């Protein structure tokens, strides 16, 4: 059987189709969350020093340097049924762990630093170069953000969003802990590769890994184009 036939047959499998659909849903939600969080947190971190700024920077950057499985375990303790946040959510009838919200949180946190940092750096540079000029012309902070910063953040923001989604797409550790890897419920595409390898189905693992590889190459090409556009 040719690889293309194997590829197509694998994509038609119910578990694979579910994982693809779930992954697209999670990425769509994560994109919206990253958009607002990237702009908001980037703006706060680019301002002059204020109380708590250092702590916020640590919290935002932590998923980038902390082991994903350890991050997932810490969140499991916090958001689980016996965690103080989890108990509060359960009292309101909300369930985060081993459900879609847990998978979204995992994807969101995995890509968050890669979205915030480019926006933060760009905002700091723009505030220094253009923000002071706008202030001397009597513009307020809201006007500066909307008329000066935001129009010049298209490429840094797009770069951050693509990097964040690329990181979220390949997330395993935090998703495994918070989502539980429940087949037909929380098994994303990356976890489906994990399941295929664990069960010895290397043909399915190869097909899904190839699919992720193609997506990664497309992400790289887009980033190269954005980088070239920014240098012009």
Automatic annotation (TrEMBL):
Matches recorded under Pfam families? BPD_transp_1 (PF00528)
The record's PROSITE patterns line, in alphabetical order, gives: ABC_TM1
Return the CDD domains for the record: TM_PBP2
Q: Name one GO cellular component term.
A: plasma membrane
In this chain the ABC transmembrane type-1 domain maps to: 20-223
Q: Which Gene3D superfamilies match?
A: MetI-like
Residue ranges of the TM segments: 20-43, 55-78, 98-116, 144-169, 205-223
Alphabetically ordered keywords of this record: Cell inner membrane, Cell membrane, Membrane, Sulfate transport, Transmembrane, Transmembrane helix, Transport
Answer yes or no on keyword Lipid metabolism.
no
Recorded GO molecular functions are: ABC-type sulfate transporter activity
List locations, semicolon-separated: Cell inner membrane; Cell membrane
Recorded hits in InterPro entries, A to Z, give: MetI-like, MetI-like_sf, Sulph_transpt2
Presence of keyword Transmembrane: yes
Its membrane topology is listed as: Multi-pass membrane protein
The text of the family note is: Belongs to the binding-protein-dependent transport system permease family.
**Task of the protein:** Part of the ABC transporter complex CysAWTP (TC 3.A.1.6.1) involved in sulfate/thiosulfate import. Probably responsible for the translocation of the substrate across the membrane.
Known partners and oligomeric status = The complex is composed of two ATP-binding proteins (CysA), two transmembrane proteins (CysT and CysW) and a solute-binding protein (CysP).
Q: What is this protein called?
A: Molybdate ABC transporter permease subunit
Q: Which organism is it from?
A: Serratia sp. (strain ATCC 39006)
């Amino acid at each position: 059987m040719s690889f293309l036939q194997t590829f197509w047959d694998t994509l038609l499998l119910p578990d694979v189709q579910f994982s693809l659909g779930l992954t697209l849903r999670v990425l769509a939600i994560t994109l919206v969350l990253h958009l607002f969080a990237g702009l908001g947190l980037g703006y706060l971190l680019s301002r002059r020093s204020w109380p708590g700024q250092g702590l916020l920077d640590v919290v935002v950057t932590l998923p980038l340097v902390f082991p994903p499985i350890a991050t997932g375990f810490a969140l499991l303790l916090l958001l689980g049924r016996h965690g103080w946040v989890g108990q509060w959510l359960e009292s309101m009838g909300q369930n985060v762990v081993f459900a879609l919200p847990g998978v979204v949180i995992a994807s969101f946190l995995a890509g968050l630093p890669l979205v915030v940092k480019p926006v933060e750096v760009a905002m700091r540079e723009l505030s220094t170069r253009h923000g002071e000029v706008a202030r001397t012309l009597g513009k307020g902070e809201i006007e500066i953000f909307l008329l000066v910063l935001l129009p010049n953040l298209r490429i840094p923001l797009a770069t951050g969003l693509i990097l964040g989604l690329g990181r979220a797409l390949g997330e395993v550790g935090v998703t495994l802990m918070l989502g539980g890897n429940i087949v037909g419920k929380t098994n994303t595409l990356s976890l489906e590769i994990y399941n295929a390898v664990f069960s010895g189905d290397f043909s399915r693992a190869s097909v899904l890994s190839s699919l992720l590889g193609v997506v990664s190459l497309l992400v790289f090409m887009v980033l190269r184009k954005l980088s070239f556009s920014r240098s012009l």
